[in-house]
Structure formats: C-alpha cells, structure tokens
Amino acid sequence: MQIANNAVPFPVTAAADPTLNTTSQYVLLTGPGAPFASTISSNITFTSDRLIAAQAGIYELVFWANVSLFPSNTAKVAVRFRVNGSSVSSLKVECKSNANGDYGNLAASDYISLNANDYVQLMVASTATGNINFESLNLTMNLIKAT
Prior knowledge:
Blueprint: E1 2-3, E2 10-12, E3 27-28, E4 44-47, E5 50-53, E6 57-69, E7 76-83, E8 87-88, E9 93-96, E10 104-114, E11 119-126, E12 130-146
Antiparallel strand pairs: 1-12, 2-12, 3-11, 4-5, 5-11, 6-10, 6-12, 7-8, 7-9, 7-11
C-alpha cells in the first residue's frame, strides 16, 4: 500500500513517553491524512489501511516514508507495525526535526509469521502535538515461505 504526493496532514497528540517506546501511545495511521492506495501484490489483499495475508507463512515487511511536515521544529516521529489490530511490533523507526521545514525519512523491514487472514497496519507516534505529513509512503508484504 502506498501514499503518493500527499498534502493532507495527519493530526497527532504528543505521546506522554518522550522516548516513544510505549506502544500504547501509538495511533493507527488512517483517514484523510493517510490516503493509502493499492500497489501490485501477490497473495496479499489491501483494504483502506491494512495488508491482509492470503495464507499462513513467513512474510517480509518493507516500509519507507518521506515526512514533509513535523508537528514542531523539534519533534520526533516514530512508526511501528501492528498485527491484527492489537499486537504492536517492538521494532520502531524514528526521525527528528531539527528546524522548521525539515524533511525526514523513515525505513524499516522485518520478517513476521502470519496466519491466513492476519493483517498488518502502521502505527505512528510523536513527541509533539500537531500535524505530520507523510508526503510519500510505501508498505509491502511479501510471502517468503508458506507454512
């Protein structure tokens, strides 16, 4: 799933944990500020804000994003994977704004075991309240080995 040439910001509230390590303080990346579109995939179904596994197996997740707007000129922004609406990955990628107008890049990959119909979503957190703009973003999920 991807976002391309997005100009609509995604509103966030500052996480209480400034390290962004507390997974319960992340929110689902969805809605007008996350206009996801489908990309080419095999054995994967896309619906609005998630990728769904067609069969049980080991999957590779590959994520990257360009952040063109931060909630503040000193904000950190982090993204994590979430499985089935509740299990948030311990893997966190983050970037920090150092000045007004900064751009940021995020990238991560991981291997996870999924059952048929399990789904993956993106969660986001920030150290500041305001708007984040994911100008472009891509999340792919590839079956590596059926189980």
